[in-house]
Design goal:
- By secondary structure, this protein is α/β, with parallel strands linked by helices.
- The chain has a single domain (5-257), classed as Class I glutamine amidotransferase (GATase) domain (Rossmann fold), CATH 3.40.50.
- The chain has helices at residues 26-35, 52-58, 89-105, 114-122, 148-151, 165-170, 232-257; strands at residues 5-9, 11-15, 19-23, 39-43, 61-64, 109-112, 126-128, 156-160, 174-177, 184-187, 192-198, 203-208, 217-218.
- It has a 9-stranded mixed beta sheet, sandwiched between helices.
- The protein starts with a strand and ends with a helix.
- The model has no long low-confidence stretch (mean pLDDT 94).
């Protein structure tokens, strides 16, 4: 059997400050291919080119990646401010209904950073524009200078619920992660279970309650060093197993209907 197909949600960029492109980090494709055991397929997240319905047919799972642009606050009933940063409305138009469709149909996804925030917003939640401005919170943003190794350095502890989804995945209730985000959950969406938090109480790991498929999402970046990191590897392995299971069920349904 061929590898399950995982659609990797892209971000829009200007190459050389003038040429529009859809791009995805190489480490995302590497984690999907080498740890999840799936075929990575970069998705142009723009409704001018793809539809949610087409993506659901073509892919067996989705990686909701991080990205510099944030979910537009109009998606959760708030006005945009300078603190909200940059936006990518075309990506919002694809990912938010895609999350809801996956939850309904049991199609697996793994949310990372912005993807984590998209899952919360898709389920009716809201976001803080800047975590570091809240009393008692740490600065969760990536260091402005330094090498990639320094920017993705393991920086804080995440505590997950004993017996919960992430405890089962990690085999531990405390793990160490990197942190490279500015925004975070303000109000959890309907059916969103906050299953892991940072030391300052910031939500870091969530899933959708009673969803028939894999819906794990994390606020950090597990794609960094996913092959060797003891936290990242089991997460991508669990996601890959879910995509494999979904692909097999779909093939079985096709064969049964033939």
């Amino acid at each position: 059997m061929s590898r399950p197909v995982v659609g990797i949600i892209s971000n829009t960029h200007l190459l050389n400050d003038q040429y529009p492109v859809h791009a995805g980090g190489d480490m995302n494709a590497s984690a999907v291919a080498h740890v999840s055991g799936c075929m990575p397929l970069l998705i142009p997240a723009d409704p001018r080119y793809v539809s949610v319905e087409e993506l659901m047919v073509q892919c067996d799972g989705f990686l909701l990646t991080g990205g510099r642009p944030n979910v537009h606050p109009e998606q959760y009933g708030e006005e945009a401010t300078d603190a909200h940063g940059e936006f990518d409305p075309a990506r919002d138009a694809i990912t938010l209904p895609l999350v809801r469709a996956c939850v309904e149909q049991g199609q697996p996804f793994l949310g990372i950073c912005r993807g984590f925030q998209e899952v919360n917003v898709a389920m009716g939640g809201t976001l803080y524009p800047e975590i570091r401005d809240l009393p008692g919170r740490m600065n969760h943003r990536m260091p402005p200078d330094g090498t990639l190794e320094e920017k993705f350095e393991i920086r804080h502890k995440v505590t997950v619920s004993e017996g919960g989804l992430f405890n089962q995945i990690f085999g531990a209730t405390e793990v160490m992660t990197n942190t490279l985000h500015g925004q975070g959950i303000k109000r959890a969406g309907e059916r969103i279970v906050i299953d892991g938090t940072a030391e300052d109480g910031t939500p870091e790991a969530i899933y959708v309650k009673d969803a028939p498929g894999f819906t794990a999402s994390v606020q950090w970046h597990p794609e960094w060093n996913a092959t060797d990191d003891p936290v990242s590897r089991p997460l991508f392995e669990a996601f890959g197993a879910a995509a494999q299971s979904f692909a097999q069920r779909r093939l079985g349904h096709v064969l049964k209907s033939a």
